[in-house]
Automatic annotation (TrEMBL):
Assigned GO CC terms: plasma membrane
Keywords: Cell membrane, Glycoprotein, Leucine-rich repeat, Membrane, Receptor, Repeat, Signal, Transmembrane, Transmembrane helix
Annotated organism of origin: Dillenia turbinata
SMART domains: LRR_TYP
Official protein name in the record: Leucine-rich repeat
Pfam family, one: LRR_8
Family: Belongs to the RLP family.
Length: 626
């Protein structure tokens, strides 16, 4: 026991006084490296535990340290996500053979020490996801010419990006996104002759694209989204022969998309959304054979008809997002339009008139359709079940009338889980409704037909859609009963049937829907008791209000002598006091309940006002989300 204690003592003394005792333990790492690392260890505020010096002065064995086997020199230091705090002092500069420094996802603060860029063998520098602040260091003389990857993502660096960045002439990947850089992008890219990926998204860069950037022959990924860049999108595709991904979303670019863009033959992902781009989509888009994802939402592009007939020639197009353009145009209905590979189609909030187009029928790979917030009218087509991969259909806020087609109860990928899982998912960040998803599969299976003029019954067969998570049929003119079979939709999280003309009782079996977290049947003509069991205990009164004959045993009026206000029987298959199905007992129970009769007392809270067939939208969050 004593010997262990003295050994531990001995080793810890050895650690703090390396010069005196290193000879007595196995030291295979270089002593300069060891000293540098020990200084670093003392300087960081949260000491690095796991194996750091505690046992061994062979720093090559410390966690996150890698040595070159022959020379035993430290060549890599990778301490990622270790809760390290403090400033980077000059201690690390002693590691003069370092090739990889990865301190990503810690809490380092202070300025970026310029010396890091003079570690002459450094190839990879990753300081992303820390709290470094101040300006990009000035690089005079010859910084590490070997640096190929520089990641400064998600820090608090500010000021302009120095033109000296061009002296890091071997950079292949440069990511300075999510900082507070401002001013123009430096015209330094002619010196970055190997740069393949450049991301400066989520900063406050302004001004035009520098010519050296828009003529870079090596660049394949350019991500400048969420800045204040302006001017025309004048990329020179004769020069940018390797460009495959361009994301200029959320800037202030204006003018037309250049006709010459098709010369960038390798383009496969284009995001120009949230700019001020106008005119039509250039005819030359036809030639973008690799184009798979195109997002142009929130611009001022016109002529949807031309856009679709051009884009159908991009045979690899899987995702097309055109929201908020083409204001007040007519939905093209040319039956010969055909999108062979299209999996995602979003043309929302364009105030398009016309009807649900027939050509959708031939786009058999579709998984997600969002045509919400238009003025599409007529009846819903009968062929939706032919689109066997559809799992997300949003046609809300239109003027669709007639019955819900029964074909919607036969959507294969909402019936069984194994249909669309065979589809390759699209794994590019994709944006709808203020949330960012990484995969199309992150969208919850949804059927949203709310805010239309649909009438007729809610088909009992909808219950077949076992994979459905969101069913919103609110704000229509649906009638008839809510049927028991809806409780077969075992994955349902949201069920909104509010503002229709439904009558009868809320089926007790709905309490089986364990995932249900949002439920509303408000403003119908329902009667009977609210099944206050399971999830139904959590729904607010507003879920039920506006029904003349709907009674709740949970919330009697304040002045009620609540003698029979018992706790609900959570385990049992019964209403409070009365088993479901025994209608005759209901009369007795009603005396202990409050009924939702205030439909006519409250002002209507509709967010949409119809005037003579025209639809006007008042303030509504969805308007901003799209
Ligand atoms: C010292 O380290 C070397 C290389 O890792 C190893 O071969 C040797 O056995 C070690 N010696 C002792 C005494 O631990
Ligand atoms: C010290 O070394 C022993 C034996 O090699 C090992 O079991 C222990 O986990 C090490 N302690 C630390 C803190 O690394
Ligand atoms: C830094 O380490 C993290 C975690 O291992 C890794 O994900 C990241 O790619 C590394 N950075 C570089 C530039 O290799
Ligand atoms: C960002 O930089 C501007 C000056 O360019 C400064 O006024 C602002 O405080 C900075 N914001 C943060 C969060 O550092
Ligand atoms: C971005 O920069 C512009 C000037 O180019 C400035 O007016 C604006 O306030 C800045 N925005 C932020 C968020 O720093
Ligand atoms: C576009 O790139 C080509 C090929 O590099 C070059 O010859 C031409 O001058 C460039 N055009 C402009 C306007 O920069
Ligand atoms: C396109 O850009 C917009 C605006 O910056 C962004 O919100 C969206 O996520 C981007 N879409 C893709 C697919 O990257
Ligand atoms: C968009 O461009 C038009 C001119 O093409 C201009 O009138 C308008 O102010 C711009 N809008 C924004 C938000 O910059
Ligand atoms: C189209 O996509 C398929 C499958 O992703 C791919 O194999 C093919 O090379 C692509 N064709 C073009 C011209 O991009
Ligand atoms: C949209 O573009 C048209 C010309 O195509 C222009 O008249 C109009 O002002 C633009 N609207 C906005 C909001 O920029
Ligand atoms: C839309 O584009 C087509 C083809 O370029 C053209 O014939 C048609 O006139 C355009 N429509 C409008 C309204 O500009
Ligand atoms: C899953 O797919 C297989 C073949 O594709 C089919 O035989 C099976 O019936 C499907 N399962 C369900 C639950 O639909």
């Amino acid at each position: 026991m004593d010997s262990i204690i003295s050994l531990v003592l001995f080793i810890s003394i050895g650690f703090f006084l390396p010069g005196k005792v290193t000879s007595s333990v196995n030291t295979s790492c270089n002593s300069d490296d060891l000293q540098a690392l020990e200084r670093f260890r003392r300087e960081v505020e949260k000491p690095i535990d796991q194996g750091w010096g505690s046992n061994s002065s062979d720093c090559c064995k410390w966690e996150g340290v890698r040595c070159e086997p022959v020379s035993s020199r430290v060549i890599a230091l990778e301490l990622v996500h270790k809760n390290l705090k403090g400033k980077l002092s000059d201690s690390l500069f002693g590691l003069d053979q370092l090739r990889v420094l990865n301190l990503s996802r810690n809490f380092f603060t202070g300025a970026l020490p310029p010396q890091l860029f003079y570690l002459q063998y450094l190839e990879v520098l990753d300081l992303s996801f820390n709290s470094f602040s101040g300006f990009f260091p000035s690089l005079i003389g010859i910084p590490s010419l070997r640096l190929t990857q520089l990641y400064l993502t998600s820090n608090m660096l500010s000021g302009s990006l120095s033109i000296q960045i061009g002296s890091l002439s071997n950079l292949i990947r440069l990511d300075i996104s999510s900082n507070n850089f401002s001013g123009p992008l430096p015209n330094a890219f002619q010196n970055l002759r190997k740069l393949e990926q450049f991301s400066a998204s989520s900063n406050n860069f302004s001004g035009n694209l520098p010519a050296s950037l828009s003529n870079s022959p090596t660049l394949s990924v350019l991500n400048l989204q969420k800045n204040s860049l302006s001017g025309p999108i004048d990329i020179n595709c004769s020069a940018m022969v390797n460009l495959a991904v361009i994301n200029l979303g959320s800037n202030q670019f204006r003018g037309a998309i250049p006709e010459s863009i098709s010369t960038c033959r390798k383009l496969s992902i284009i995001n120009f959304s949230q700019n001020n781009i106008s005119n039509q989509i250039p005819d030359s888009f036809k030639n973008l054979k690799y184009l798979s994802q195109l997002s142009l939402s929130k611009n001022n592009i016109s002529n949807l008809s031309a856009a679709l007939s051009i884009l159908q020639h991009c045979r690899n197009l899987t995702s097309l997002v055109l929201t908020r353009n083409f204001q007040n145009e007519v939905m093209p209905n040319d039956p010969s339009l055909h999108f062979k590979s299209l999996s995602i189609l979003v043309i929302a909030n364009c105030r398009l008139s016309g009807s649900i187009p027939e050509w959708l029928r031939s786009c058999t790979r579709l998984q997600l359709i969002d045509l919400s917030w238009n003025s599409l009218s007529g009846v819903m087509p009968l062929w939706f079940d032919e689109l066997k991969f559809i799992f997300y259909l949003d046609l809300s806020c239109n003027l669709l009338s007639g019955n819900i087609p029964t074909s919607l109860t036969m959507l294969q990928s909402l019936i069984s889980s194994n249909v669309s899982s065979e589809e390759a998912s699209i794994d590019f960040p994709f944006y709808i409704q203020s949330m960012q998803y990484n995969q199309i599969r992150s969208f919850r299976p949804t059927l949203n037909l709310s805010y239309n003029l649909l009438s007729g019954p809610i088909w009992p067969e909808l219950g077949e859609l076992k994979m459905l998570h969101v069913l919103d049929l609110s704000h229509n003119q649906l009638s008839g009963h809510i049927l028991d079979s809806l409780s077969n939709m075992i994955n349902l999280e949201t069920l909104d049937l509010s503002r229709n003309n439904l009558c009868g009782e809320i089926p007790y079996s709905l309490v089986k829907l364990n995932f249900l977290s949002k439920f509303s049947v408000a403003y119908n003509q329902l009667t009977g008791m609210i099944p206050r069991v399971g999830q139904f205990l959590t729904f607010p009164d507003s879920s039920f209000e506006g029904n003349r004959g709907l009674c709740d045993s949970l919330s009697p009026p304040d002045n009620w002598n609540a003698k029979s206000n018992e706790k609900p029987d959570e385990g049992g298959e019964s209403f409070i006091g009365a088993p479901f199905g025994f209608g005759t007992i209901t009369g007795f129970v009603i005396t202990a309940t409050v009924c939702y009769i205030f439909a006519d007392l409250l002002p209507p809270s509709r967010t949409r006002i119809r005037r003579g067939g025209k639809v006007t939208y008042t303030k509504h969050w969805r308007q901003f989300a799209r």
